[in-house]
Structures are given as C-alpha cells and as structure tokens.
Amino acid sequence: MGRATKVVLAYSGGVDTSVCIPYLKQEWGVEEVITLAADLGQGDELDPIRQKALDSGASVSLVRDVTQEFVTEYAFPAIQANALYENRYPLSTALARPLIARLLVEAAEEYGADAVAHGCTGKGNDQVRFDVSIAALNPQLKVLAPAREWGMSREETIAYGERFGIPAPVKKKSPYSIDRNLLGRSIEAGPLEDPWVEPLEEIYVLTKPVSATPDEPGYVEISFEHGIPVSLDGQALAPVELVTRLGEIAGLHGYGRIDMLENRLVGIKSREIYEVPALLTLIHAHREVESLTLTADVTHYKRGIEETYAQLVYNGLWYSPLKAALDGFVQKTQERVSGTVRLKFFKGNLSIVGRKSAFSLYDEDMATYGSGDQFDHKAAEGFIYVWGLPTRVWSQKNRS
Ligand code: ARG
After folding, report:
1. 155 vs 142: CA distance, rounded Å
2. What does the alpha-carbon distance between residue 279 and residue 239 come to, in Å, rounded to a whole number?
3. How far apart are CA 172 and CA 143, in angstroms?
4. Atom of ligand 1 nearest to the CA of 91
5. pLDDT tens digits along 378-389
6. Max avg pLDDT among 1-5, 117-121, 151-155
7. Which of 126, 303, 322, 389 is most buried, with most CB under 10 Å away?
8. Among 181, 188, 263, which residue has the most ligand 1 atoms within 8 Å of its CB, making it the best to mutate?
9. Is 126 a catalytic residue?
10. pLDDT grade for 400, boundaries at 50, 70 and 90
11. Residue 151: what are its φ and ψ, rounded to 5°?
C-alpha cells in the first residue's frame, strides 16, 4: 500500500499504540516505525515503555521528558488566560496535545520520516488536536491514525498484537478511560457514561473524599509575577515543583474535582470527570491578582478573550494565527499582574481570603465608608445626570 516509508508514532506503552507498530508495517507497508513516548508527569515508568516499543517492532524508541516545557510553555499561558472550557474544564488533557505534536514533528524532521502517527480513535477531540497541530507545524508531513481506521474490537486488537509478540495486558482492563499528566486526570466511560450515575470514589487518585479531609483548614499563599506563579508560602519554587506541591495540598483537602457534561468538537456530548487540584487553584488565584491589578475595562474585555482562548485550545487550534494574536493580548495584560493571594482549603472548598500587590489599583481612601473618605460625592451627581441622559430621553419620548 505504501502510505509512508518512515513513521514517528506517538507511543504510550498501552495495547493500542503497541499494536499500531506491527499494524503500520504489515497492513500499511511502512518500512520503519520510530516511537516517541513523552513524559508529561503521568507517573508511568518510561524505561519499560522504551523497551516495550522495541519488543513490538520499533526501530528506534525515543523518550522525552518534557514536564518542564509542559508547565511553562503550555500550562502557564493558559493560566494567564484563565482558560476554562465551558466555564469549567481547565484543559489539562487538551494542553498536552500540541506539545506531543511538536515532539512528533521535531523527531520526524530529525530522523527524516515522511509521516507521523497517533493511536487516537475517531470519536474524540484528541485526534483533531494532533492532526491540526501537526499540519500547522509541518504541512508536508502525513498523519496516520491506524486506530481510526482499523475497525478492530478490543479483543481483536489484543489478538492481532499477540500474533506479533505483543503480550495481552495482564491486568483486567478497568472500565474507565483515563488520561493523566502533571496537570490532572481525566476519567470517562464505563459506568460514567450514564450522566445520572454518581462517580464511584475509586476513580479518584489526586483528591481525597471530603469525609477523609483534615478537620483544620489549610492555608497557602501563592505569589505571581507577570501572571506566572513563582512561589508558595514565600518559598520560590521551580514550575514543576510548584504545581506538584500545590496539587498535593489542594488534593489533600479534597479540592479540584469536576463532574461535567461537555460538548466535544466532533458533536458528541460526553460526561467527563476531572481531577485538577493545582490547575484549578492557580486559575482562581491568578484571577484574583488580576482583580487587584487590571483596570475594569481590561478585566471585562479579557473575559471574552478568555472564552475564545479556551475554545481554541479545546478545539485543537493551539498553533493558529488567532491563538497567536490572543497570546499577544494576554501577554500585554500581564505586565503588572504580580502579587500574592492567600487561600484557604477546607472540606473540598477553596476560598480566597486575602490578596495584595505592589501594583494594586485598590485605593482604600476611595473605597472606605469611614472618615478618611476621599471620594467626591458631589461629582457622582453630575456623572449620573450624564450617564443616565440617553435613558431619560428615551423614556420621555416613549411615554404617551
Ligand atoms: N474530554 C477531555 C478533552 O477532550 C479529556 C479527554 C481525555 N481522555 C480520556 N480518556 N478521558 O480534553
């Protein structure tokens, strides 16, 4: 068939991506498969995965630790944009895809491959994110998605793999489909497909049930510089460490669970559970520093930008001209978004209990109801006359 000669395949070590290796060679005439496994903080051991790819027929098995880039180049800009898809989902899975796509393209260019491949099926968002990101980064490359076309059931997939020495999974497969990285976990399928069914406690790993949380609240201070979190409780931390530690604290107090029905780009409504303790905390804390340091009009205008930004990321347009233009806007707004937020975690809840900034626009002399009041009350009268004039005129003309 000869769809491609040399392919770089995004590899997770699971059955599906393992089966992709012999499948590409046997069925689609690919001569050489190079696999690439990305460490995004999903907690898998990557050495066995590297070996498994070779055992499954890969000629080269690449492993890339990109946790640092994942946080600084993908998560932090999304936090600066307060990006929440449909007002709730902080895009923990979606943000990883453009990074993996970038790694695939870089490897393809380095090894002279004419195609890249991934194991996504045809019903999800991730296939769109991969295909579009790859096309944006190198439109010459072909993108192969064997699992979108092979039409094998799970049993058939396992049987196919066994013919080529890929062992059947030892553990009985969990009914859930789970995606995990440093930013959180996404859980779907199995009993969760009925949106009326409450998730079982067993699906959660990063967040405690409220019944098991401490009886004392946990306080944390997060400092931001130019919209980027830089320290916890006054201690400067590297990005990966900051996200990890904050996730542990928030998770201990049961904060960061989302149970939602979302609209996928491919038109399907799907029920998804997220555990995103650090990411959700950072977005709320960041928004709080903005509330102190941005003018009212920028804050209000930015809300619309944030909505569009979240949709773009969800819909696979990370490397698009509109996304780049919105980045320009967001970055400009972050120049003075520096300050500290004091948070309280308690029994699954997050409250913001304090905020301060050297760039604060909050003026106590203006806001106070006490004796130090500097606000010119007289000026309010004239302002309201002018502000309300169009409405007054409209009303007069419409009364008969
Ligand atoms: N619905 C989410 C998204 O499109 C997460 C999908 C992740 N996959 C999973 N197995 N739960 O970003």
Report:
1. 29
2. 12
3. 31
4. 12
5. 899 999 999 999
6. 117-121
7. 126
8. 188
9. yes
10. low
11. 65, 25
Tell me which of 376 and 208 has the higher pLDDT: 208
- pLDDT (0 to 100) of residue 2: 58
- What distance in angstroms lies between residue 212's CA and the mean position of ligand 1's atoms? 27
- From 97, 123, 127, 179, the mutation candidate for ligand 1 (largest count of ligand atoms within 8 A of CB) is 179
Question: What type of residue sits at position 379?
Answer: A
Catalytically annotated residue among 12, 56, 61, 97: 97
Q: What is the pLDDT, as a whole number, of residue 312?
A: 98
Beta-sheet strands, E only, within 147-205: 177-181, 184-188
311-349 pLDDT tens trace: 999 999 999 999 999 999 999 999 999 999 999 999 999
**Closest-lying ligand 1 atom to the alpha carbon of residue 178:** 10
- CA-based angle 123:71:126, to the nearest 5? 5
Report CA(24)–ligand 1 centroid distance (Å): 25
Backbone dihedral angles phi then psi of residue 328, each to the nearest 5 degrees: -60, -45
Indicate whether 1 pLDDT > 50: no
3-state DSSP assignment of residue 248: helix
Domains of the chain (ranges, CATH numbers): 6-69+92-163 (3.40.50.620), 177-294+337-356 (3.90.1260.10)
Three-class DSSP category at 277 = helix
